[in-house]
Design a protein that fits this description.
The protein starts with a helix and ends in a 15-residue tail after the last helix. It has one domain. It is built from 2 helices and no strands. InterPro entries: RapA_C (IPR022737). It comes from Aequorivita ciconiae.
Length: about 90
């Protein structure tokens, strides 16, 4: 019984370590995707504003603020283990 408990703890530690290692890659991918999407939208709005005065500066400012907020949230995302599947081989 104690041996099983130790094995489970080691499994949880190993899974957590792997998740943390992968999280930095996923965070970087998330930041890149978000920036590509919002930078495209911000650039589109700025270009459109030069041709259409109905595009208000507040719309562009709102997109800039959204990008800053999302960047902060994504940068400080953290790993949380929700579940672990244990397979017992006898």
């Amino acid at each position: 019984m104690e041996r099983d408990k130790i094995a489970h703890q080691r499994g949880i530690s190993a899974a957590t370590k792997i998740a943390k290692e992968q999280s930095s890659k996923e965070i970087a991918k998330g930041l890149q995707t978000m920036k590509l999407t919002l930078n495209h939208e911000i650039d589109r709005l700025k270009t459109l504003q030069t041709k259409n005065k109905n595009i208000r500066p507040e719309e562009i400012q709102s997109a800039l603020e959204e990008r800053a907020t999302l960047e902060s949230l994504i940068k400080y995302a953290r790993v949380r283990m929700d579940a672990m599947q244990v397979i017992i081989i006898e």
